[in-house]
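Handout for the seminar on molecular recognition.
Each group receives one record of this type.
Step one: identify the two inputs.
Step two: read the structure output and locate the region that could contact nicotinamide-adenine-dinucleotide.
Step three: write two sentences on what you found, then compare them with the reference statements printed after the record.
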Amino acid sequence: GARGMASTTRWATKTSAPSMVYIAGEEMTNYACELITKDWIEPYFTTEKWEHFDMSCTNRDDTDDKVLHDAVAAGSRIGAIFKEPTITPTAEQKEEFGLKNALGSPNGAMRRGWNGITISRDTIHIDGVELGFKKPLLTTFHPLKGDPILVDSRDLEDDHNVVVVYHNPLDNVEDLAHHFFSRCLEAEVVPYVVTKKTVFKWQEGFWAIHKKVFDENYKEAFAAKGLLDNTGGELQHLISDAATMQIIRWTGGNFGMSAHNYDGDMLTDEVAQVHRSPGFITSNLIGKRDDGAMIKEYEASHGTVSDLWHAHLRGEETSLNPLGLVEAMIGSMQHAAKLELDADPSTQENYDRVMTWTVTLRKAMHNTFRYGQGTRDMSGPDGYTTEDFIKKVAWRLDR
Ligand code: NAD
């Protein structure tokens, strides 16, 4: 607008967005990300340094998954990745989409390719707006890694058997534990380690490593902040069933959880419900390149929001909450700018512009929610549609 940012000196010229990998998915979140890119990003940035990968099922199939391989390689090289939610096709979807290949999970391939140490998930908070949890919450889970090895062999006498093999190397758990406890300490929340080690005996090591790292490095600092006052002065273990129940009781927040991959998925879905909507949860994958450099991938914790996509295709109104998606965009652009600055100090001005713009964007989104103009998961049936919310934030961003 006339008094808009685009016309002020700060935004008079477009900034060149630092190198980043952009992984596109499909359905509703892909549609929303296209609108966001057009209305929120392109007025302020040129994105010629972004490397784009189309991770839709059909493109993966057409390229015999070369696209996934290339995206993982680009992610290792660049170190900052934004990823839209993607579909891992079920057997029915393979038929439905006419795919020739059975495609595995791209997230699994990325975790392996980037030596994924941990995925951290946080609740998003908006000042002055009450969501579910009152204090930030963290749930962490660690991925599988390594080649399959023969751990067991036995005869199955009939078809009524399912064999499940877990390959669960413990070599990442120490890094995960440090990452988890540092984040809990910084956020000043009480750490819990969650497993089902009573039944799955192999999970004992996950707990034991956490406990050792905690006792040797963090116990005193947590105690000094009074964060162990209600835990008998010790790190607590929670059986996953108990954790499930506590999440709906501990609505005051003030806790972090470290869990195995699958438990972490379930627990964060439950957190998403208590905290209003999956749109208010972030998800970051932190990995390590072979030379030790950190790789950071940012995504929303939710999926492609298929139900809204089908409603959209039927011509109905939808209301997608884009906060988780956009926090991922903000995180990856900030990380990309930091990597660019580390490599080349002359990019300070670009770095500053990315920081200013991302902070402004976050404020524009939060204000839109705060003024009761949020999406329907927050504001009820009178809330904004997917498109109107994006337009409203674009307008606020341009002021
Ligand atoms: P989903 O997270 O897409 O949706 C679950 C429910 O939450 C739906 O009712 C949806 O409308 C609602 N919801 C989720 N995010 C929302 C938002 N931002 N705003 C408003 N409402 C929101 O999970 P699903 O329906 O089980 O899965 C759909 C597809 O996504 C599947 O193909 C699945 O494989 C894929 N998926 C991908 C990822 C990923 O790429 N990381 C994660 C989970 C699911």
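Reference statements: The first strand starts at residue 15 and ends at 16. The two ends are 7 Å apart (CA to CA).
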